[in-house]
Amino acid sequence: MSMTREPLLLVEKLRKHFTLHLQGGLVLGVLDDVDLAVAPGECVVLAGPSGAGKSTLMRCLYANYKPQSGSIRVHHRGGFVDMANAAPHDVLAVRRETMGYVSQFRRVIPRVPAREIVAEPLRAVGVPGPEALARAEAMLARLNIPPRLWGLPPATFSGGEQQRVNLARCFVMAYPVLLLDEPTAALDAANRRIVLTLIDEAKRRGSAIVGIFHDEEVRDAAATRTFTVRPQTVSDTTAA
Amino acid sequence: MSAAEPILSVRGLSRRFGAIAAVREVSFDLWPGEVMGVVGESGSGKTTLLHLVSGSLRPDAGTVLFRDRQGAMQDIQAMSEPARRMLARTDWGIVHQNPRDGLRMNVSAGANVGERLMAVGARHYGNIRGAAEDWLARVEMDLGRIDDLPRTFSGGMQQRLQIARTLVTHPRLVFMDEPTGGLDVSVQARLLDLIRNLVAVLGLSAIIVTHDLAVTRLLAHRLMVMQRGQVVETGLTDQVLDDPQHPYTQLLVSSVLAA
User: Fold this and answer.
1) Which pLDDT score, from 0 to 100, does residue B111 have?
2) Is there a contact between A110 and B189 if contact means CB atoms under 8 Å apart?
3) How far apart are CA A11 and CA A72, in angstroms?
4) Where do the structural domains in chain A lie, given as residue ranges?
5) Which of A90, A119, A201, B5 is most deeply packed, by most CB within 10 A?
6) Do the bridges between strand A79-82 and strand A43-47 make them parallel or antiparallel, or are there none, so unpaired?
7) Distance, in angstroms, between B202 CA and closest chain A CA?
8) Average pLDDT score over chain B
9) CB A73 within 8 A of CB A81
10) Chain B residue closest to A109 (CA)?
């Protein structure tokens, strides 16, 4: 590969804890001084036991969670945006153009058909309506969503179908940075292989990927390296 | 939303009603194409804030600056009354919680939309009728009802008519006060979908006051949480809802019944 190794995603000294005010101010520590750099073409797989904070780290990267300190710099429009500190409209610009996220949780929008859900991110960056729809349908077809479902809202779809709509919405864009949190959890073997192909294509075109994969086969096939998230102990937390 | 300058800039806005500080020291910027949700329980000051920002109520202190079509920042309080009324008819739109406050109940649906256009100078009957029909179709109204009075409409239809009446003049900034309040859940979903599409397609900036957090997740890019007249938390909508920092926001979020 002839691409530069300059990281597209650079996490430094990231700390995250949760203060539960309704539980008497109980503090749960999750992440402490996390440093992580992800270069183009890399797929970094987060490892660590359940509860270690892998999904919390992922959500911080997408600015869905607000870290206490540290920085999350993302290469965007020729510069860097710090997702931990940027204004909402800058974060949304990064999400629109640069950073895609597939979560294990699916949130469906009432009344909006599958093809519109997948076409929406394309439209948001100015792809004309008919082209956006055509590309959305092509990606839905690739992920084995039958055409008879394209015009229906995914609320009534099976778990696996909803997850594939989610995946289509992400992979229809060629995001330079991809966050994949258990993207194959509800999929059968054939569809898992399709997702692996999509991940492979993203790596080849130089996307920087961070993933959480419960499935060992998917993990081994996708990972270029592993990053271990260490669980915080209670004593660490109270000392903080 | 890549524009470098805000369309609305609010600084230090305060207003008392007797002994009660209804709104205290509120400041924010709104960017072109940005939708901001204002949430908080009844009496938190969110509707008063909307009235202060839209110029229908005078603040005790603070400024509201609005960027006009020429790019100049206009101080809303310093504007003459006719200039402010013109702004309200052209660049601004207000969607009231109760459609009766935003509609004229004794003229037809078509006239409700058409008269907003006439107020900004449209005179050609055919063009006005055409624009009214176009907007009634965009809010999914049956065109067979264009000559009917709004009082014969259901609550959801009245609200869609109010939205058509508000958007026909292509405002750049829209204020919405509980736009889905008092409607059945299925009617709400349809209206939310409609507002969501229109705001995205038209690139509107909007401030939406609501106590319904689910509404903000669908419509708002970012949130401002108010308690006792003060802003206690601001941020990206999904961040405020999924990782609330302030005790009051944590209480609000945890009080929602998950369907």
Assistant:
1) 95
2) yes
3) 4
4) 1-98+177-183+208-240
5) A119
6) unpaired
7) 12
8) 91
9) yes
10) B218
Angle between helical axes of A159-171 and A129-142 (0-180°, round to 10): 130
Q: Distance (Å, rounded) from C-alpha B46 to C-alpha B39? A: 7
pLDDT for the residue numbered A236: 40
Q: Is B242 exposed, middle or buried (0-12, 13-18, 19+ CB in 10 A)?
A: middle
Q: What's the pLDDT tens digit per position in A15-65?
A: 999 999 999 999 998 899 999 999 999 999 999 988 899 999 999 999 999
* CB pair distance less than 8 Å for A88 and B235: yes
3-state secondary structure of B58: coil
Crossing angle of helices B125-138 and B155-167, in 10° steps, is 130
Neighbouring C-beta atoms of residue B151, cutoff 10 Å: 10
- Give the residue-averaged pLDDT of A189-212: 97
Q: Rounded CA gap, A159 and A200, in Å?
A: 24
Report the topology of domain A1-98+177-183+208-240.
Rossmann fold (3.40.50)
- Give me the mean pLDDT over the A74-86 stretch: 97
Do the Cβ atoms of B236 and A92 come within 8 Å? yes
Mutate to test the interface with A, among B233, B234, B238, B254 (most CBs of A within 10 A): B238
DSSP state of A186: T
Distance (Å, whole) CA A115 – CA A170: 13
Phi, then psi, of A218 in degrees rounded to 5: -65, -40
CB contact under 8 A, A63 and B190: no
Tell whether B235 is within 8 A of chain A (Cβ). Answer: yes
Distances (CA, A) of A9 to A5, A68, A190, A198: 11, 19, 31, 20
